[in-house]
Amino acid sequence: MARDVIVVGAGGGGPVVAKELAARGLDVLLLEAGPHYDDPERQWTHLEDDANNPLTGFLRFGPGDRSKPAWYRETPQNSFLWQLSGVGGTTLHYYGNCPRAVPGVFAGYEGADAGAYDAAHRFPFTYEELIPYFEWVERTLPVQTAAMGTKEETFFAGAAGMGLPVNATKHITQDSFRPQENAILQPSGAAGLITETVGNVQELAHPNARGCTFCGYCFQGCYEAPGAPINLKAKRSTNVSYVPMALTADRWAAAGRAVMLRPNAFATRIHTGTEGAETVATAVTWRDTATGEQISEEARVVVMAAGCTENPRLWFNSGLPDPNGWVGRGYTDHFFDWVVGVFPFDTGSSKGVGSSARCDFPGLGGLENVGLPPALQAFSLTFSESGIQGYYENGRGPTGPWDGAAGRVVGPALKDMLSNIDRLLNVLVITDDDVEAQNRVVLSALNADEHGPVAKVEFHARERTARTLANREALARRAAELLRAAGAVRVHRMDWPPLILHVQSTMRMGASDADSVLDENAEARWVRRLFVADNSALANALGGPNPTLTSQALATRTAERIFQQYFGGDPWVGAESPVSSIDDVVTDAVTAAGL
Amino acid sequence: MYVPRDESPEHEEQAPNRRRRRGLNRRQFLARTGVLGAATLLAPAVLFGRRAEETDAASLLDMLAPVLRDLSRDTFAGLGAFVVPGPDTYSVAQGVSTPSAGGVAAKAPEFLMNALDHFYPLPDDVVRLVVEALGTGLSDLPLAVPGGLLRLPLPLIRDLGDALQVVLRNDDTLPLSLPIALMLNQLATLTDPGSLVGPFVSPFANLSFADKAAAFRLLEEDTATLVALIDDGLTEPARQSVSGLLKFLGGALLEFSAFGAFSEWGVFDARTRTLTGVPVGWRLTNYLASTGFRPVEGWDELKGYFEGRTEVTG
């Protein structure tokens, strides 16, 4: 008997659709290629290699059995693709940053700066239409205004020193700075007020401490405060928010039905049939990564949410149609850059939330502070498209208001720069980058694994559009100016190659069927009953804001469309109030279910 | 890989000069990869005794395995010292050392080898193609093989070449760190042929700090030159993939040496998932110094809310 819906991928987007439809009483199967860490407090550590080693860490892209190799992706250029498998997906290592998209990237935008955006690839509906969905997700996660640590105070001093005004709204309408709106629970009780020392860990345990304890381990996966029920962990990765709600929908939603979650289930094929003159999705086959067993189930609707790299791979490996050639194309990555200041005073860079401060520059993108532990900090300082500073520049080595030419820091210079990690302040340059056909996912001719030919991710960093390149340069300069204004005695620009971590738009929705894969409902143009509900469905790079919130808002909208179109239901956003994932009713449900 | 098959006696008679030239090229290939230097460390009695017993290349392979592992380790130690120098011999040899511990003490070489050999699913074919094609390309460039590396007789060179070919072509047993180390050594001899001689068997480890940077420049900036060198050995789509892989490796080897050197890997007990000591990188960065180098569940770091605002709307 067919399921109502099969969702492929339990990352940032899939669990949103699963939870919303389960709350409506549908029979939902949620597949995830990676493992489900259901007791992170005991299964994880705060150690960087143990967590983040892309080949061996518990937050890697690979099978749950960590004695086995990671899964391969071909990246035929200097770049790094920071993908992740496991329930929660990349929200496991994200910083919970939840800015809304910039209004200028949506249809119907008529602001004076309308020409400053990727006008050829706007969303096929208006910003105003998405606002109720933003609000729904913001209340569900929930999203809250971030508290400050020392590094945020330093960042704000720099932003104010540049003469930027403060933005005290959720909308991005002018050059400005502000605390992040984060999917991280604000600290209360002892959280943020005491440092754990031997013997007082209980003071930082739930319920003495609630919300963010400022431990500094966002990128290693959050399980603070110790002892908190799974749905009350500080950082609102989907493994602690949407997934627990999905698994207990029968307990907290009046007409709800619990989602069936299958981790270690790598989808390898989407099956299709015909319905009248149309091709429709009918079933999914996956491989159990532990046993090797191939399993298929039928469904009335299939939702792809395996990510910007794996969705196109699954599409191609399933032999699905691609008449305009846009499956996998239009990959946007915010073409990050990295500017680091060295300070004569403590910045607390390794402590607190990964990022709680940002600047927005509509039409250009944004800047945000980023704190890191030492190994990732060292990685960030040796990742460059401009060679090794002082030795070679790889044909680039841009100069500007930073010190010397951009490039890797290696040898004694690296040791010197890292001599006190808490005297650094990192600024991430988040470029509003254009959708371009040349940046894309194809199948690798080199390698196939047990799940079929692997993905090859091509980025042409030096050949990006003039607007993208100019945006990035302008933002790098502003980052350096901010750091100087904050008191940095030395400023270094890295000129990163593509760090493929904010990923968007490889299965993009669009107004035109000439350069999009999805229609305005996020349904595949050439395969009905097949939807996409993660970052790959986004029409563009959002103008620079971190993509998760918009992706989750869009996934909520997509869930409504599925319910209306194929199950005869009514929309609920705007008509109802969402249940927060930290509401007592959810805590009770999670506790009763033994999660 | 330019390791020509054994010529038949008839062939030898017909083309003695060609045989001699190709034999020398095989010696050059083995020298450039560091394998020749490593093999000369085997006791001559072992090597020559083996000849007397007329055993096949497989037995040489057994003898070579630990030697090749040492060669890889030597090469990656040269890399670890480059990215994060310390007081170790590799740092001293490159002419840039520091009093505080560096990548070698942090076990960055072992970190990289472990990850490459057991967890990186890069198709071995691709790296093997690079090494082989580089061997072909470099064979036309003159290289004066130092006297110390000439003492192995030609038949033994031929067997060494065969043994290495077996290693490189066996996907089940090829540790990925080996072809990458061989490639770094090839780049080293291209940067400075003098690197064949030095305190280490790895030419890369024998380079000065500046020449190590120059070797990476070759890998990263002069990819077109390198690809041109190896073009003859490749066809599409491998050619494009090799070019991309070289650029990727140029970055990744540096980035992950740094990541490994500053991570806890060198003192992590995977069985108990605890630390057996203080990670080198933590001391270097003063990380967690105030807690006695112990991760904590929280800090007294809350500085309040910007302008006192805990919520924004609309």
Largest interface: A-B, 99 and 82 residues
Count all strands of chain A and give the number: 21
Oligomer: heterodimer
Give me the Rg of chain B, rounded.
Answer: 23 Å
Instruction: Estimate the mean pLDDT confidence of chain B.
Output: 82
Return the structural class of chain A: alpha/beta
Specify the overall morphology of chain A. Answer: globular
Features of this protein?
A: 595 residues; seven-stranded mixed β-sheet; six-stranded antiparallel β-sheet; 21 strands; 21% helix; 19% strand; globular; B: mainly alpha; two-stranded antiparallel ribbon; disordered N terminus
Report what the structure shows:
The complex is a heterodimer of chains A (595) and B (314). By secondary structure, chain A is α/β, with parallel strands linked by helices. Helix content of chain A is 21%, strand content 19%. Chain A has helices at 14-23, 40-43, 48-52, 127-140, 150-161, 242-247, 249-252, 310-317, 374-381, 412-417, 466-486, 548-567, 584-592, and strands at 3-8, 28-31, 80-81, 144-145, 176-179, 181-182, 188-189, 209-210, 260-262, 265-275, 278-288, 294-304, 337-342, 357-361, 365-370, 424-431, 440-449, 452-458, 490-493, 499-500, 530-532. In chain A, the strands form 6 sheets. In chain A, strands 1, 2, 9, 10, 11, 12 and 21 form a 7-stranded mixed β-sheet that branches. Chain A has a 6-stranded antiparallel β-sheet with strand order 5-14-15-16-13-19, covered by helices on one side. With 314 residues, chain B is mainly α. Chain B contains 15 helices and 2 strands. Chain B has helices spanning 9-14, 16-33, 35-39, 44-53, 57-83, 89-93, 108-118, 124-138, 154-169, 177-191, 203-206, 209-220, 223-230, 238-262, 280-285, and strands spanning 268-269, 274-275. Chain B has a two-stranded antiparallel sheet with strand order 1-2. In chain B, a hairpin with a 4-residue loop joins strand 1 (268-269) and strand 2 (274-275). The longest helix of chain B has 27 residues, at 57-83. Mean pLDDT of chain B is 82; it is low at 1-23. The chains are: A alpha/beta (595), B mainly alpha (314). At the A-B interface, helix 3, strand 4, helix 5, helix 9 and helix 10 of A face helix 7, helix 12, helix 14 and helix 15 of B.
